[in-house]
Amino acid sequence: MAPNDSAATGTTADGGVGRRKAARYIVPVAVAGVAAATIGLVPALASSGDPELPKIGAQELIEKIAASDTQRLSGTMRISTDLGIPSLGGLAGAFTGGEDGPGGRGGASADPKDRMTELVSGTHTLRLAADGPDKQRLSILDDAAEYSLIRNGDQVWAYDSKSDTAYHATADGAGKDAGHRAGKRSVPEGVPTTPQALAEQVLEAAGPTTSVTVDGTARVAGRDAYRLVVKPKQSGSTIGSATIAVDAENGVPLKFTLLPSSGGKAIVDAGFTKVDFAKPDASLFTFTPAKGTEVTEAQEDEGGGKAGRSDAKGLEGLEGLVPGAGQLGAGDQGVKGARVIGEGWSAVAEFKVPGAAGLPDKASQEAPAEARQFLDALGDKVSGKFGSGTVFQTRVVNTLMTDDGRVYVGAVTKEKLVEVANGAS
């Protein structure tokens, strides 16, 4: 793949142009969900040389993505995610199907809400297939096991071969819209899925605070592609750029790379290593649990609706890249009383933690010594006009919790958080 500093071709487009159309382009892998955030470079994804392609401008390339009507594909992709979040070690199993966690056999669970969150860290190999709006399949490949999420019409199945457990849900109604809703209910918000899903989030968020350019060409999974680069115009964001490799023939995003403003390896790198746009075999979208498989039926009231979705428009572009972003507004189940300071990539949400008086001071006896040491190790103490507080950092989203219970959170640097908190005091 062409390096990020390759010579630019084409023109620059402010992010607002064509963004409404961009939401229509995605190959319908609805069973994997689209919501989300979040993601080193994978040398295996690149091929030899950068192809010579006709010049194209950013606006024209965005329109090419929006006009793409590709609804069939099959292939293999790799996704690497590095949000800079410390590993939970054995604690993760208690929540996502470890030996002592909830669910089926030995704590295992085939529920997508438990399993798809695996994609928010580490490197994974996925196998994808789609045949129109009603048939999709996504499989996470392990050394000796496979986890698959399958949608066929109004039927959604998930199967974990390691534990021989399955999960079954029925979509509300039929057709494209119902399938899309079923997919969103099956996968948690913020879980990265495909280059198409990740690209959609960025293009929908593009606005006056965003620069969009065409920056050379690349070969991805053996196919010629243009490199569309999206960058914040503002300072203070933790996001440096997002690069989308767009198939030169059909406009399908083949690879997505999200880089931090601080430099270093990618936050998210997701791309096809192999892709075919022919009709997939119909057997990929059928599933019947074998005798002895433990099946869990979805609850009737699972998911659905938009309660708790964000009114914090400045953060909505992070919704599919960062777990929890886009849910900091004033939705029925969101954070009450939140307000957004700033706009675009530098937006910061401010709210008061209900009933909280901030973190216990180090010298306070309100918390055990071990707890205070743990908090000190995770965060950096800061002070300013707002008083004092602690900044908790990842490679994308940073959070300032003041000692009097105010919280400031956004995809901005520690310095920007302190600046915003000072200005709000």
List the SSEs and their pairings.
Elements: E1 12-14, H1 19-22, H2 58-67, E2 72-81, H3 93-96, H4 112-115, E3 122-131, E4 135-141, E5 146-152, E6 155-160, E7 165-170, H5 176-186, H6 195-205, E8 210-220, E9 223-232, E10 239-247, E11 253-260, E12 268-276, E13 294-297, E14 339-341, E15 348-352, H7 369-378, E16 379-384, E17 387-393, E18 398-402, E19 406-410, H8 414-424
Parallel strand pairs: 7-13
Antiparallel strand pairs: 1-8, 2-3, 2-12, 3-4, 4-5, 5-6, 6-7, 8-9, 9-10, 10-11, 11-12, 14-15, 15-19, 16-17, 17-18, 18-19
Descriptive account of the structure:
This protein is of the alpha+beta class. The chain contains eight helices and 19 strands. The chain folds into two domains: 286 residues, Lipoprotein localisation LolA/LolB/LppX (outer membrane lipoprotein receptor (LolB), chain A), CATH 2.50.20; 112 residues, no CATH class. The strands form two sheets. A 13-stranded mixed sheet has the order 1-8-9-10-11-12-2-3-4-5-6-7-13, with helices on one face. Strands 14-15-19-18-17-16 form a six-stranded antiparallel sheet. A hairpin with a 5-residue loop joins strand 10 and strand 11. The longest helix is centred in the middle third of the chain and has 11 residues. The chain is globular, with a radius of gyration of 22 Å.
